[in-house]
Design a protein that fits this description.
Length: 253
């Protein structure tokens, strides 16, 4: 019997699609990122002006910079340079100065970045360490964060179609009895430790990382404090289940 694939063409087609989204942002003379001696504090003090119309025939770099300048209008030029560095580093090839600029920002201006950037760009920064971290430990932590928040985004977006509010845990009595895909063993809400086994090692490693560690810890603190995540809903369901079990024991005793 012929299997229906989620991704027709299999994994080679997936890789081709992925690579197709990674063409380098080619710049023309006079365009590009801040140089290696850039004054980051001065960039932090400078505000981004809303850009005018983009000229026809602009370079790929100019098109990307225009889009980001529109997004970052009124915010610091440092935040814009950081976003541009990330955009370049996500591609198959990047300007020579991009890795050093990205790292300098997180070595010298981490507190400013944590205060200014929204969650989207903080996650993007952590993910960039997956490919451009200076050490194997940084790259491994970056990959862990990439997988964690990518799957959280996919899951939480699909949940929107359930009609369920993000801070509303599912009712315990409405569970489908269908098995998990690929024969995966079900998770035990009452006793399962999959959530802490996933999150705990990421926090423990981040706590030991001097450069990207504060960024990852900041993201995990946001995750822990957000009432609308899979992890919070599971915690509320666990509390409800444990309270129900304690009530039944008390009634039976």
């Amino acid at each position: 019997m012929t299997r229906t694939l989620t991704y027709p063409g299999g994994w080679p087609a997936v890789v081709d699609q992925w690579q197709g989204r990674r063409a380098a942002l080619k710049a023309r003379a006079g365009e590009g990122l801040a140089g290696p001696g850039a004054d980051l504090a001065a960039l932090a003090a400078e505000r981004v002006a809303a850009p005018g119309p983009l000229p026809l025939g602009s370079s790929a770099f100019a098109v990307k910079r225009h889009a980001l300048a529109t997004e970052f209008a009124g915010r610091s030029a440092l935040a814009l340079e950081h976003a541009l560095a990330i955009a370049c580093l996500r591609r198959r090839a990047w300007p020579d100065e991009a890795p050093a600029l990205f790292r300098r920002i997180w070595v010298e201006e981490a507190e400013r970045m944590l205060a200014e950037l929204d969650t989207r760009w903080l996650i993007s920064a952590a993910i960039t360490f997956a490919d451009h971290g200076a050490t194997e430990s940084e790259r491994f932590l970056g990959q862990s964060v990439k997988i964690l928040f990518s799957l959280v985004k996919l899951y939480e977006f699909e949940r929107l179609y359930s009609g369920q509010d993000p801070d509303q845990p599912f009712r315990l009595g409405k569970r489908s009895r269908a098995g998990l895909p690929m024969g995966i063993e079900p998770f035990s809400i009452r006793d399962g430790g999959l959530d802490v086994n996933l999150l705990g090692p990421i926090w423990a490693q981040a706590a030991e990382e001097p450069v990207m560690g504060p960024l990852v810890c900041h993201l995990l603190e946001r995750l822990n404090g957000d009432p609308g995540t899979l992890f919070r809903r599971l915690a509320l369901m666990r509390e409800k289940l444990q309270a129900r079990d304690a009530r039944r024991r008390a009634e039976g005793g």
